[in-house]
Automatic annotation (TrEMBL):
SUPFAM superfamilies: Periplasmic binding protein-like II (SSF53850). It comes from Rhizopus delemar. InterPro entries: LysR-type_TF_proteobact-type, LysR_subst-bd. GO terms for molecular function: DNA-binding transcription factor activity; sequence-specific DNA binding. Transmembrane segments: none annotated. This is LysR substrate-binding domain-containing protein. GO terms for biological process: DNA-templated transcription. Belongs to the LysR transcriptional regulatory family. Pfam families: LysR_substrate. Residues 8-123 form the LysR substrate-binding domain.
Amino acid sequence: MVTAGDIEPAGPLRIASSSAFGRHVLAPLLPSLQQRYPQLQLELRLSDRAVQHGPEAVDASIRIGAQLEDGVVARQLARIPFVFCAAPAYLKAHGTPQQPSELGSHRGLLHRFPTDGRPLRWCLLKDGQRVDAAHHPAGGVRG
């Protein structure tokens, strides 16, 4: 087990992450981490599903969202911006929204959290204030 008192981290370290974050951010960092701490036995588990922490599961996980599991300490590592995208053909046919309130008349995909199926609301910042945009999902994306 890796502990804060170790002079050099050693032993197994199981880290869970979403597939995209693990592939694009964590995986490229692993070779240098392994070179710096050769006694560390890294295991990266990539999944877009909720994970369990503890002796039989993972030691740490990196996820987007609030802490969901009792007894787990959460720390914000970064802010992940979401962007709204539309195909030029869609905008030509339906118009380009100029205000968050106009999104209610547009269709879009709705992301659902894989842990509990909650929808990720469309939120925007307008003049520094958070605005929830009403929308009508045309489908959903899980994961």
